[in-house]
Amino acid sequence: MLNRTGVIFCSVSLVTAAVVCIGGFRLAALPKATIEAAQVPVPPESLPELDLPGFGKVSALDLIGYYIDNPPAPVNAGGGAAAAPKRFGGC
């Protein structure tokens, strides 16, 4: 048996949560122009240089070339770091 106060509390809570979610999504969502610009491919020559700590400024084209020449080693190939110990049976 539901009492009237409980039903009102649940209804107001649901409406409040929906308003907060809608308002929060509108504040957190990227602008349409940014989303459309992200979907257009750009040649690497037109990207700005990246400032890497310890290396200085490096062009994106050089980073892509280095990644192609030196791909990361697979995790189980023995070159990677040891697997982290499992604790408490979790992740």
In brief, what are we looking at here?
Helices cover 46% and strands 7% of the residues.
What are the main properties of this structure?
91 residues; mainly alpha; single chain; 3 helices
Task: Report on the architecture of this protein.
The chain contains three helices and two strands, in the order H-H-E-E-H. With 91 residues, it is mainly α. A two-stranded antiparallel ribbon has the order 1-2. The longest helix is centred in the first third of the chain and has 25 residues, at 4-28. The mean pLDDT is 85.
Give me the number of helical elements. 3
Low-pLDDT runs of 5+ residues are none
Order of helices and strands: HHEEH
Question: From the alpha-carbon coordinates, what is the Rg to the nearest angstrom?
Answer: 25 Å
Shape: elongated
Topology, element by element:
Elements: H1 4-28, H2 32-38, E1 50-52, E2 56-58, H3 60-69
Antiparallel strand pairs: 1-2
